[in-house]
Amino acid sequence: MTYKDANQPIKTRVTDLLKQMTLQEKVAQLYCVMTAGDMERILPNLANGIGTISCLNSSLTGDNEKDLAKLKEIQRHLVEETRLGIPGLVHNEGIAGAQIPGATTFPQSLNVASTWEPKLANKMGEVVKKQLKAFGIKAVHSPVFDLGRDPRWGRIGETYGEDPYLVAQMGTEFVKGIQGKNEVMATAKHFVGYGNAEGGRNGGEQQIGERRLLDTFCFPFEAAIHDGGLLGVMNSYGILNDQAISTSKWLLTDILREKLGFEGLVVADYGSISHANARYRVTENKVETAIAALKAGMDVEQPSNTYYQLLTGAVESGELDEEIINTAVKRVLEMKFKLGLFENPYQDGDFEAEITDLRAEKLSQVIAEKSIVLVKNENNILPLTKPLKIAVIGPSSDAKINFFGGYSAVGTASTTSRDFDRSEDNFLKMAYMTYITEYKQNLIDVGIVFEDKPSPEQRELIMNRLRQNLSKSDKTYGSTEEFIESFYPNCRSIKEMLEERFGSENVFYAKGCETRTALEGGIDAALSAIQKADIVIAVLGGKESMRAIDATSGENKDNMNIDLELPQVELMDAIFNTGKPVVSVIVDSRPLAMPLITEKSKALLYAWTPAQKGADAIVNILDGTVNPSGKLPVTIVKEKGQIPMYHSRLPFYPEITDWAEDINHDKNTPRYPFGYGLSYTEFEYSELELAEQVAANGKITIACQIKNIGSCDGDEIVQLYLRDCISSIVRPVKQLVGFARVPLKIGESKTVEFEVDMKQLAFHDLDMNQVVEPGKIEVYVAASSQDVKLQGEFEITGEKLVIDRKVFSSIATIK
Description:
- By secondary structure, the chain is of the alpha/beta class.
- It is built from 25 helices and 28 strands.
- Helix 6 packs parallel to helix 7.
- The radius of gyration is 27 Å and the shape is globular.
C-alpha cells in the first residue's frame, strides 16, 4: 500500500491512507488513550486505532521493563491488530527531563533561564530526546512559553522568566534540541497568555489587548515556529478576552495558524475541552463542545475521548461536515509520518544505557551551577574558607525532594492522572461521566447494565468503584522519598555535601521546622547547633508539587504568600537574633520576596529547583569550587502589593528609573531587578562602539569591551537593551534584544559584538500593521536591567517599513 511506502512523499501517503479510512477510524485519530490501568481497559479504546497515547509518570509503575513491555504491546496491537495498522503518537513531559522513573532529572525552566545560555537548553533537549525515544516516546508536552510575571502563580518555575526575548531564546533552543531532525515532537504551551491570569490564579481569566498579545505573549511561540521548526502546540486552560481558549477559532486558527504561520499539530491540554462546557458554559452539551473545539482548530482531545468520540455521530446527523474531520486527521497523520512512526513505532535506543550515561548527569549539574543566582554577599562572606564550623539548618538542609520541580519524574512520582486537571472541583462527577460513556462496556461486563443512564442504585455502585480505583496503586515504591532512593541513589542533601567537604565533625545539623509547619523543640535544637558553629547555612524555601499536602506551589497550587512560610520566618528570626553570620540558600521554584531574609542574611542565593545534582551544585558555589554566574530571569519584588512588576514596563514617568509613586517610596523599586546577579569577581565595561545611523531594513553592530578586574576567573552575562525614544504607540522603557555569557580569566579582556536586525524592533502600529519606524534609539549595555554600564544611541533612517515577519534574535560574537 502506498501509505506504507517510506519512499513516497508524506502528502501522498496521507492522501492514500485517508481515503481508506472509515469515519470511525478518522475520529479515533483525534483523541487519546492513557496507558494507566489494565490492558482489558485500554484495548476496547483501540478498536479503530488511536491518535495519541498518554504515557506520563502518573501512568508508570516504576518497573521500567514492565512499563516498556506494556507500551510496546499497545503499539503492537495498533500496528498488527487494527485494520490499517496506524501507530499511536506517545507523549510524555520534559521540561525537567523525561517524566520516566530513572530518567535524568534536570533543573526546571526558571533555572535554565537563569544561566542565560541557550546552548545549555539545546543540550538538555538533546538528552531528553534520546531518553524519550529509547522508551518509545516521540512527543513531549514541553517547553512552557508562558511569561512568568506573577510570583503568586504556582507554575512560574516552569517558565523561562518574564521577558519574551529571553523566553524565546531559551525555549527555541530547547525545541531544536528535543526535535532534532523531526525525531520527537516538541509541544510549546500554553497558547496563549496562561501565565498572565488575574491574581496569579491558575487557568483564570486573562484580558490582553491584541497588540500586546501579538508583540509580547505570542513572540516566543512565533520565534520557535520560524527559528525552531516547532511541530506541536498545546492550548491554554482559561479564558482570554472573554473567550474559552479551547473553543476559540480566533486564537487557535486566526492567530496561531494564519498570523503566526504555525503548520503543525494542536493538542488539547488535559481536560481543557470540557471546560468550555462544564466550567465556562459557552456550549450547551458535549456534542456542541466537541464541534466547537474542532472547528476552532483543536486537532486532538487529550487525555481521553470524552468529547471527540461524539464527532462520529455529529457527522452522521449532519451537524458537522466530514471535511472538517479530514483536515484535523491529515495533520495527525502528517505528524506521524514526519516522525517516522510507521517505520519504527517502538523503542529507538537503549533506555538503560541512556539514563546511566554520566554525561547527562554532568549536564544537569552544570545547568544547576550556572543557574544559581547570588544576590547578596556582604563583606565577601562567600566563598566559605576552611577550617570552619558550620550549622546547617532549615527544612531543605537534609532533604532532597525539594530539589525537584512539580513536572519532573520525582515531582510526579506520587501523582495520578487526575492531578493534571484538579482545578475541577467536581472531579468524581466528571470521572463518573467518563466511566458511563467511554468505559460503559467495562460496567456491563461486571453486571451494571443500563440504557441511557444508570439508576440511582447503579450510580452509587459506580461511584464506589471509582473511589476504590482512585485509591489503588500499582507502583513499585510507596512514597516520593522511596522513589528518590530507588531511582536517584546518587542524589545527596546539602548537609551530606557539607559534611563531605568540611568534615562531619565540623557540621552541626538541626532541621528547625518543616516547610509549612513548626517542629516541637525545633527552634531550640537549631539554636543549640548554632552555638557550636562559626557560621549558619540556612536552606529554606518551599515545595513544588501537584498533590503534596505541604506543597507551597505547583499546578493548581497558587500561593498568595510570596514570603517564606511562617514557621521558617519564626525560625530565622530567632537565628538572626543570635548574631551569628547567616548564609541563606533558597530552594524554591518561585521568586520569593522574603524581607527578613534579605535584610538580615550576610549572603543570599536563589537556587530554584536544581534537580538531582542540586546539593553538589549549591555546595560548589558555597565553597568557591564554582564561581556563581546566574542572573535573575524575573524581577523580585519587595512585597506582593507591587505585583505586577517587570523590567520591560511601559513608561510611568519621563525617567526610565521611575517605577511607581506609592506613598511608601521604598516600594517604588523592586527588591532585585531582572538580569541581576553577583559574582566572586568583578567586571569592567568599556569602549562602546556603534554606527550613528542604520536603515530601517538594515542591521547594526554594537560592540564593547569586558574585562575581569577581580581576583578569580568568572563568567559575566552582558545584556543589551534598546529604547525607542519616539514611537506611534507607547513602547517599553527597555527592550532586551541580546545577551551573551562571557567567560573571562583573571585580567582577561574580550570584545562582545551584537548584530541587531532592525526587524527585531518591529511592533504593531495604530493600524495593526507590523512596522519598523524611523527615529532615535537609545542603547544600554548593562549588567542587569537596572545596572547600565555603557550608553549610546543611533538613528533608524528612511521611511516606515511594513513587514510580514520579525527577526527574532540578534547574533552575539565574543572575540
